Amino acid sequence: MLDDELVVAFMNLAAQNLLGLSARQAVGQPLGKIIRPAEDLVTLCRRALTTRLTFGLRELPVWISGREMSLDCRAAPLERDGGLLLELNDTEHERAVRREAELLAQQKVSRRIVRQLAHEVKNPLGGLRGAAQLLERQLAGSELTAYTRVIIDEADRLAALVDSVLGTRGARVPEELNLHRVTEHVASLIEAEKPGSVTVVRDYDPSLPLVHADRNQLIQALLNIARNAMQAVGERGRLVVRTRVLSNFVIGGIHHRLVVNAEIEDDGPGIPEELKETIFYPLVTGKPTGTGIGLTIAQDLVSANGGLIEFTSRPGCTVFRIRIPAVGATAVGTR
Questions:
Q1: For position 119, what pLDDT does the model report?
Q2: Residue 147: which residues within 8 A CB-CB, separation 6 or more?
């Protein structure tokens, strides 16, 4: 609530949490000192006070307590006591919720697509391999068996690829583990594979709680992401392997007290805009030689362990984030 001079007269708990200020800090302060830039918001409020009508702004970019945010704002005059009621809604949170729902829907569609596609591919592969084996017997002792061996080997390779897409990866073996066992293993593999001019930086939070997950599945998921990042930076660049703890975080509609966050950041050219909405679908890739299944498999593996992969990307900074609920961080509700 603001008075006629747009000085804060009252702030409820939700506003305190959103603005990162206590009521004691905010009450008595001009609106322009709390939210910056304030010009558009001040104009909105003065217009509401002058006309005694309600006005709103959508997705107003502001800086609050050192954070960039996007707010929906609604200013309504108070009839009895004068002054103004200012309602603020964090659209970033709403967008994050919508994006998570989209990722979960993509995962379901992707799983259905790859299963249908894999079955269509696997049936003729079996026939191809069987025919090559019969031909190889007929050509026993001939130099032409080298060609039938190529056919059989390639059929086996494609069958293995199809199995990986189908997710026939064996039984999940969860354990309580520190995610640094996963990130350090992946970072070591990338160190061995990278070009000499690519730098790998570790930025670890030493206070990570444990997660209950299959170590090998998380290694495979993180390795798929890290190899994509290494290919994105090319012969010269920087990869950052980062871990953090998030509190009061929602995954798949479930609110967890603590979530462990593992990130792979690269300074490559970024993901093309036309691929961002479909990057987790199978066969979607921005690389001329890519198969487009690495991120699909990674998302499926992380989801099997109760987590989710999200990303942000712009030229010079692409970050993929694997988020897994911490052990003992009991869900505190659903949305």
A1: 66
A2: none
Q: Look at residue 17 and give its three-state secondary structure.
A: helix
Helix (H, G, I), strand (E, B) or coil at 283: coil
Rounded to whole angstroms, how far apart are CA atoms 287 and 276? 14
The 10s digit of each residue's pLDDT in 38-63 is 888 899 999 999 999 999 988 888 87
DSSP string, 220-240: HHHHHHHHHHHHHHTTSEEEE
Look-up: residue for tokens 């593996």?
301
Task: Enter the tokens of residue 125.
Answer: 């592969």
Does 210 score more than 60 pLDDT?
A: yes
56: Cα separation from own chain's centroid? 31
Rounded Cα distance, 262 and 241, in Å: 7
pTM over 0.85: no
- In whole angstroms, give the CA distance from residue 199 to residue 188: 12
pLDDT band per the 50, 70, 90 thresholds, residue 212: very high
Token pair in block for residue 243: 């871990």
CA 212/CA 205 separation, integer angstroms? 18
